């Protein structure tokens, strides 16, 4: 009871002198007390102390000159942390740990104990993967001479947030400014920026000033980086879960003033994003950005994602979309390319058009002035570049996806599809033969059939 009374007395009567003075006085008192067995378990802290305050007090005790007090303080902290990590509601535990870190950092006299707290965290095992804000804090290699990029995502953004926080806390006192910047440069990974923007959520585009503040952590912005950012943003254009706590914690870590509620945003702000990019990278080549879409993770799950992506491009660049970026060759990420083409061929012309295709079907003269319906208003089925890449995709194991795309022209403009496909030569001519066998019976006996057949004969006699 005496020790419990002493703790309560310190808490109530000396807290006005600041944490530093209170902790020093508490340490002095405890240094003259004998601790045995489970005395620390008898500390009646619950009525007066929050979890953060309990851990702060335990860390202060762990800094005592008395060995027994120091051990007891460490054990007490470990028990508190263990309770958090073992909490079945892991998300709640992670949020509390983030709050503890910020509490220690912002509290007078406790910021110096953040390093000890993180070392204790590194000894604990989480039931689920911790969020990005905590991930770098839990590495056993935190203070080794060589820093390694984490295997789980290589998130530069979270590491940068961690290092910015650590720089403020003077945790890296053994490194010079040049060495610190060199470490950051070695850990740079373009993909991570897009991943962490997704984790932070729509709040990244709350305002131009804040968006620039986030993006500026990764300067200079390259076309490769932006390609990954835009594809990730398009894929998560709607329905992204609210990460307000992680967003706020991150803003606090980098000293940002943009701590207003971002939960009111239900999608990315295209104007804010594009304006921020243009201000930070005015010389960006948007054609190169589109040419770098062939990367792991690029994929449009639905028409909305595709339309949102094209709205970003239209806002950023007035030039027609560079068709060669998606029709020039088969991508390494074939699924991503097919997802793009699937929605591109069906898009209205104001969203996407093939009218500027370099290789286009010219059929008017061959059919003696008889105009055939060419299906989509975006002139997709007049593009030989599109038909060429579709034929190549079909012969690389994706014939099923290509056939689905060809259902519309087979029904609405079969002659145009046949005329175009006849000008494409591939190793096996798989799709060409399928289209021919399907359309020929349809045009036999048709008024314009003779003109189509004559044109086919001159275009590709092998058919």
Task: Give a quick precis of the structure.
The model is unreliable at 1-12, 131-161 and 167-175 (pLDDT under 50). This protein has helices spanning 2-13, 19-31, 51-61, 67-85, 90-106, 114-122, 156-169, 177-186, 190-200, 208-215, 223-235, 244-253, 270-280, 286-291, 303-316, 324-327, 334-344, 384-412, 414-421, 430-443, 449-459. It has 21 helices and no strands.
* Portion in beta strands: under 5%
Number of domains in the coordinates? 3
Give the % helix: 55-70%
Gap from first CA to last CA: 98 Å
From the alpha carbons, calculate the radius of gyration and give it in angstroms. 31 Å
- Estimated structural class: mainly alpha
Total DSSP E strands? 0
How many distinct helices? 21
- Low-confidence segments, given as residue ranges, are 1-12, 131-161, 167-175
Mean pLDDT across residues? 74
Query: Any idea what the shape is?
Result: elongated
Quick one: biggest sheet? none
3D architecture notes:
With 463 residues, the protein is mainly alpha-helical. The protein is 55% helix and 0% strand. It has three domains: 1-128; 130-319, no CATH class; 380-459. It has 21 helices and no strands. The model is unreliable at 1-12, 131-161 and 167-175 (pLDDT under 50). InterPro entries: Not1. This is CCR4-NOT transcription complex subunit 1.
């Amino acid at each position: 009871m005496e020790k419990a009374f002493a703790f309560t007395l310190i808490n109530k009567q000396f807290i006005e002198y600041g944490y530093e003075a209170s902790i020093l006085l508490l340490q002095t008192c405890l240094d003259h007390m004998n601790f045995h067995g489970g005395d620390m378990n008898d500390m009646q802290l619950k009525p007066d102390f929050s979890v953060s305050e309990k851990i702060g007090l335990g860390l202060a005790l762990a800094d005592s000159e008395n060995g027994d007090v120091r051990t007891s303080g460490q054990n007490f902290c470990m028990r508190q942390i263990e309770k958090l990590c073992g909490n079945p509601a892991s998300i709640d535990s992670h949020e509390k740990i983030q709050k503890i870190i910020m509490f220690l950092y912002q509290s007078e006299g406790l910021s110096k104990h953040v390093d000890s707290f993180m070392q204790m965290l590194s000894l604990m095992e989480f039931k689920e993967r911790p969020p990005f804000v905590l991930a770098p804090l839990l590495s056993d290699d935190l203070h080794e001479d060589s820093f390694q990029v984490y295997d789980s995502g290589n998130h530069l953004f979270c590491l940068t947030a961690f290092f910015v926080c650590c720089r403020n806390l003077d945790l890296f006192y053994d490194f010079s400014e040049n060495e610190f910047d060199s470490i950051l440069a070695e850990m740079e990974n373009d993909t991570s920026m897009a991943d962490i923007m997704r984790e932070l959520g729509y709040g990244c585009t709350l305002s131009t000033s804040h968006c620039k503040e986030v993006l500026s952590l990764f300067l200079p912005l390259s076309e490769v980086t932006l390609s990954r950012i835009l594809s990730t943003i398009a894929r998560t254009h709607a329905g992204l879960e609210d990460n307000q706590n992680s967003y706020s914690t991150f803003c606090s870590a980098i000293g940002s003033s943009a701590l207003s509620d971002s939960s009111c945003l239900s999608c990315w702000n295209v104007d804010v994003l594009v304006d921020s990019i243009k201000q930070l990278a005015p010389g960006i080549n948007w054609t190169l950005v589109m040419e770098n879409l062939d990367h792991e993770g690029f994929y449009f799950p639905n028409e909305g994602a595709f339309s949102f992506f094209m709205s970003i491009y239209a806002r950023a660049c007035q030039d027609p979309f560079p068709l060669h970026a998606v029709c020039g060759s088969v991508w390494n990420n074939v699924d991503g390319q097919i997802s793009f083409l699937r929605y591109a061929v069906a898009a209205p012309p104001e969203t996407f058009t093939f009218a500027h295709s370099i290789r286009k079907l010219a059929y008017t003269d061959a059919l003696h002035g008889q105009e055939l319906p060419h299906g989509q208003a975006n002139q997709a089925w007049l593009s030989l570049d599109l038909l060429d890449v579709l034929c190549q995709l079909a012969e690389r194991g994706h014939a099923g996806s290509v056939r689905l795309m060809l259902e519309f022209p087979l029904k609405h403009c079969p002659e145009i599809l046949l005329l175009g496909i006849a000008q494409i030569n591939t190793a096996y001519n798989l799709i060409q033969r399928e289209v021919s066998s399907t359309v020929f019976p349809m045009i036999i006996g048709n008024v314009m059939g003779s003109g189509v057949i004559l044109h086919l004969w001159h275009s590709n006699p092998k058919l």
